[in-house]
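User: Hi! Is it possible to get a structure for several chains at once, not just one? Here's what I have:
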Amino acid sequence: MIGLLLYLLVGVGLLVFLWVLTRRKGAPVEGCGRQFVEARQALRTLQLGLLPENLIQRIFDREDFRYVMAVSPANIGELFLQERKRISLMWVRRVRCEIRNLMRFHLNYSRLHAKLSLLTEIRLALDFALLLLACRALRILLYMRGPYGAGALVGVLTAAAGRVCAASEKSLAFLNPSALESFRRSSAGDGAAI
Amino acid sequence: MLSLLLWPAGLLLEFALLVRSVQTKTFTKYIYFYAYISCVFVVSAGLFIGHSRLEFYEAWYWPTQFATLAFGFGVVLEVVRQALAAYPGAERFARRASCAVFVVTFCYVEWQVARRAVWPTEAATVELERDLRVVEALVLATVLAIVFYYRIEIGKNVAGMIVGFGAYVGVSLTTLALRSFLGPRFNAVWGDLQTASYFFALIVWTVALWSYSPNPKPPTTGRNDGGYDALVHGTRAQLESVRSNLRGVGGS
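Assistant: Yes, the chains can be modeled jointly so their relative placement is included. Here is the combined structure:
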């Protein structure tokens, strides 16, 4: 019976894979230039849009909540708390999304290398998966404890994401304006969007 | 009954596929795939001509079935060759992973066969075919997982090959597993489902391979074999920094 279930699992699993294949939205076949630019954009969004200290302080600062509670009725305070929770969840989701973009950059770039190492790729895939899982865990924590219940964790994640950006920036350092010009010249004209 | 209706229709589709492959000059481009179609066409036509004589049919069904099964591995090979040709890294990944899956599963099947004292009876032959279908299904699933993971874009021709052959293998495997569990009372349903799934595959192949549609060209700029170590090093550094901070998250 267990054998039968295993065979059915493999057969049905393959059919599910095929269903996913037919439903898959075709990723645009762009030049490498586009991938680099997207990775650069992900970095910029993280650095300028999501991780600036003043933005994080604004979202997670208790002072705003204390002020609202001091000058408004309790129901307004509740409403404020709900809104802040919503914003903080949105923030984590965006950070996770941009980390995924960086991951996608790695995949798009590594698949072209003939020297790609099977073990290294498996290890990296696990690492990325764990990191994304951790982001999700933080999201759950924020959801359960609210925006002011995970302040320390937010600080840690912000610092970590900042370091990721710094490291990624080094990988993409060649994408400065002068390098872009040479890149534009060498990109395939049929798909690159710089 | 359904099988008898779909059989000649399937032969016509196979013939149409082969004729189109010559017209569009894709026969040599997808040589393993068309070798499989040619093999199935010859076997199927032969069995169709002689199916009125039960002895002939019974004597030739299983040997020819195994011949087509062996040629079926050519389709899997074609899929790996075509889908990942432009991505040397992913292709190498797929080749090694597929070889590992193939060797492990095939050794298991061989071991099962060696345990039998006599040449397989019909029931054992069904089990053998089922086990070989498992190899095909697992290799195909491995290739698909790599295609999804690396977001590799595949053309209409190769997508058709994968969907058609995958559907046939998936349905065959499921019905063969049920048949070896339920026994001969499942024979009628099994035969119809097997024929219908192969007919479905033929329709998919005819539509997808009617004209030549190669895989989209991948980006070529920036391909630099020497850069992989640097890329991995950079990605590792990023992950390590994040991980060390997440350890802090866990501790706080």
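The mean pLDDT of chain A is 70. The radius of gyration of chain A is 22 Å.

User: Great, thank you!
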